[in-house]
Amino acid sequence: MLSSNGIAQELADSINIVLQHRIVNHDTIPHVNLQEVPVIPPYHFKNKRHKRRYGKLVRNVKKVLPFARSAGQKVNAINEHLANISSEKEKKAYLKQAEKELFDEFEKPLRKLTFSQGRLLIKLINRETGDTTYELIKHFKGGFSAFFWQGIARLFGSNLKAEYHKDGDDQMIEHIILLIDNNII
User: Fold this and answer.
1) 77-115 in b/e burial notation, b at 16+ Cβ within 10 A?
2) How far apart are CA 176 and CA 53, in angstroms?
3) Does residue 160 contact residue 149 with C-beta atoms inside 8 Å?
4) 3-state SS of the chain?
5) How do residues 112-155 score in pLDDT, each as one tens digit?
6) Of 87, 136, 156, 165, which one has the greatest count of Cβ atoms within 10 A?
7) Chain centre to alpha carbon of residue 101
């Protein structure tokens, strides 16, 4: 039967780990790089209503952020592909096909969003892409289409030209995204 020292020694011998090291005054000191640990201060609430609003915003950001990130990736992929196409006819055909794919993938889940989640999605798309939703529609579909959809959005109390200001009105959203990105919530 092996003693605990024997088991520990056997385990140590079976694991071969190569560490970076430094030699200081004839002494070998192991050097290990650790992952960065984020220090995020808690959000301070003015009152109970503000705290409830934060809780609702956490739920909405968790639901909408994956759509915004996916939209950012898809817009970048579409722009990359369009840069390689020289013919206007091919560009139109590609955009039509990409639009159909986007509708097939996102139409059903996006229809289930509430108005506040839709407004949040508009801002988060601006955060992820750097362009407002209005600018994206204008770039891909044209000015008339952008004007039309802006009119529809305004009827429902939204604005496709809404911008994301991480240091301004959207500090609470930025704080929540930071917590989500660091797997804290």
Assistant:
1) ebeeeeeeeeeeeeeeebbeebeeebeeeeeeeeeebee
2) 12
3) yes
4) CCCHHHHHHHHHHHCCCCCEEEEECCEEEEECCCCCCCCCCCCCCCCHHHHHHHHHHHHHHHHHHHHHHHHHHHHHHHHHHHHCCCCHHHHHHHHHHHHHHHHHHHHHHHHCCCHHHHHHHHHHHHHHHCCCHHHHHHHHHCHHHHHHHHHHHHHCCCCCCCCCCCCCCCHHHHHHHHHHHCCCC
5) 999 999 999 999 999 999 999 999 999 999 999 999 999 999 99
6) 136
7) 21
Distance CA(93)–CA(95), nearest Å, equals 6
What's this model's pTM, rounded to 2 decimal places?
0.79
Q: 2 pLDDT exceeds 60?
A: no
Instruction: Give the model confidence (pLDDT) of 41-98 as tens digits.
Output: 899 999 999 999 999 999 999 999 999 999 999 999 999 999 898 889 999 999 999 9
Token pair of 128 as six digits: 């992820």
Which residues share a beta bridge with 21?
30
Q: Which residues pair with 30 in a beta bridge?
A: 21
